[in-house]
C-alpha cells in the first residue's frame, strides 16, 4: 500500500483559534486522503511558539520561528494557516502570497471588502491558492440541511430564517488596546459573531451554489458602546424570491445555549441546535400542522471543530464582506482602514 501524500503546514500565530485548528488537523481519521504535518510555527516570541508546539504538537517537532516571514519563506512549508485577528489578515495574506504560499485564512477574511479584493488580486497575479476558513460552510450538517430544504423541500417553500449569535463580553472592563475594544483591530460583534449569523441566513435562504448566489438587499442598524459596535440587527431580503433573513449579533449578553437558527417554510420549520451559531450539532424538522410538537431530529456527532469539503470561491467571501460593509455603513461603524 502506497504511503499517503503529506501536507506540511505553517501556522501563523499561537492564539486560541490556531490551537483549535492544530488540534483538529491531527485528529486520526478512518480513511484519510493525506497526512497533515505541522511543519513550522510562527510567533512573536520563540518561547510562545515552543510552548504551543509542546502542548498541541506532541507527536511532531515543528520548526519554531520568532517571525511570520520565516514561515512564509520556509521551503518545507506547503501551505500557510493564518489565525491572527482580522486586522492583520490583509498583511499576512499579502506576505504569504509574495512568498508563493497557498493560504487558509480565518474569518472574517479581512476588515472590509476592499482589503479582500486586494488580497485576491495579488493571489490571482501570483497564481496562489487562497481560501477563507469559514468552516461552517463545509460541515456535513449544513450540506444535509440544504439538501432537505431545496431538493426534498421538507418544509415546502422557504420564506424566512431567524438567527442570532450572542456572547457576553464586558467591553468597558477591557483595556483600549484589546482587539475587542479597538476599532482599528476590527472590534465589535459583527466580524466576530455576526459573520456566522449572516452565513446561516445566506446558506438557508439561497439555494444557488457559491459563486452564483444572489446579493440580498440589506437594512441594518447598530448600537455602540465606548466607540465599539456591541449589537447589530440586519434584515436581508432576496428580491428574486422575497425570502427574508432576520440576523443579529451582540456582545452584551450570552446567547441561547441550545438554539442556533430557525428556518421557516410553507409546510413547517426547522430548528438548528447547538451551543453557538459556529457550532451546530443537530437540526429538527417540525410539520406546520402537527398536533404534537415532536419533530424528526438529525444528529451530527462532533468530531473536532472543523471539517473539510468542497471549495469556497473568492466571490462568496467578497459577497459576505460587501454585505458586512453595507451593514456597517448603515449602522455607523467605521474602521480606520475604511476609505
From TrEMBL:
One of its GO terms (molecular function) is nucleotide binding. Residues 149-270 form the GFO/IDH/MocA-like oxidoreductase domain. Residues 7-131 form the Gfo/Idh/MocA-like oxidoreductase N-terminal domain. Transmembrane segments: none annotated. Its EC number is 1.1.1.179. It is an enzyme of class 1 (oxidoreductase). The keyword Oxidoreductase applies. Keywords: Oxidoreductase. SUPFAM superfamilies: Glyceraldehyde-3-phosphate dehydrogenase-like, C-terminal domain, NAD(P)-binding Rossmann-fold domains. It catalyses: D-xylose + NADP(+) = D-xylono-1,5-lactone + NADPH + H(+). The keyword Oxidoreductase applies. It holds the Pfam family GFO_IDH_MocA. Belongs to the Gfo/Idh/MocA family. This is D-xylose 1-dehydrogenase (NADP(+), D-xylono-1,5-lactone-forming). The lineage of its organism: Eukaryota, Fungi, Dikarya, Ascomycota, Pezizomycotina.
Amino acid at each position: 500500500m502506497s504511503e499517503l501524500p503529506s501536507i506540511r503546514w505553517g501556522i501563523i500565530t499561537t492564539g486560541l483559534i490556531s490551537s483549535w485548528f492544530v488540534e483538529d488537523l491531527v485528529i486520526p481519521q478512518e480513511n484519510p486522503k493525506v497526512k497533515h504535518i505541522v511543519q513550522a510555527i510562527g510567533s512573536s516570541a520563540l518561547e510562545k511558539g515552543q510552548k504551543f508546539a509542546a502542548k498541541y504538537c506532541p507527536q511532531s517537532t515543528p520548526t519554531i520561528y520568532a517571525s511570520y516571514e520565516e514561515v512564509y519563506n520556509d521551503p518545507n512549508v506547503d501551505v500557510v494557516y493564518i489565525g491572527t485577528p482580522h486586522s492583520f489578515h490583509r498583511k499576512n495574506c499579502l506576505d504569504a502570497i509574495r512568498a508563493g504560499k497557498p493560504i487558509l485564512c480565518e474569518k472574517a477574511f479581512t476588515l472590509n471588502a476592499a482589503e479582500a479584493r486586494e488580497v485576491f488580486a495579488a493571489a490571482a497575479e501570483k497564481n496562489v491558492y487562497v481560501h477563507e476558513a469559514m468552516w461552517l460552510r463545509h460541515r456535513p450538517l449544513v450540506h444535509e440541511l440544504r439538501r432537505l430544504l431545496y431538493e426534498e423541500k421538507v418544509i415546502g417553500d422557504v420564506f424566512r430564517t431567524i438567527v442570532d449569535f450572542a456572547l457576553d463580553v464586558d467591553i468597558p472592563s477591557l483595556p483600549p488596546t484589546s482587539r475587542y475594544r479597538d476599532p482599528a483591530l476590527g472590534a465589535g460583534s459583527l466580524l466576530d459573531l455576526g459573520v456566522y449569523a449572516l452565513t446561516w441566513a445566506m446558506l438557508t435562504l439561497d439555494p444557488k451554489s457559491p459563486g452564483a448566489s444572489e446579493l440580498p438587499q440589506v437594512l441594518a442598524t447598530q448600537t455602540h458602546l465606548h466607540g465599539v459596535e456591541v449589537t447589530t440587527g440586519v434584515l436581508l431580503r432576496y428580491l428574486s424570491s422575497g425570502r427574508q433573513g432576520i440576523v443579529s449579533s451582540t456582545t452584551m449578553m450570552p446567547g441561547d445555549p441550545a438554539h442556533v437558527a430557525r428556518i421557516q417554510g410553507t409546510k413547517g420549520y426547522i430548528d438548528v441546535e447547538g451551543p453557538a451559531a459556529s457550532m451546530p450539532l443537530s437540526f429538527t424538522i417540525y410539520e406546520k400542522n402537527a398536533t404534537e410538537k415532536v419533530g424528526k431530529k438529525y444528529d451530527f456527532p462532533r468530531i473536532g471543530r472543523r471539517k473539510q469539503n468542497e471549495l469556497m470561491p473568492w466571490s462568496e467571501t467578497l459577497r459576505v464582506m460587501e454585505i458586512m460593509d453595507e451593514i456597517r455603513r448603515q449602522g455607523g461603524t467605521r474602521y480606520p482602514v475604511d476609505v
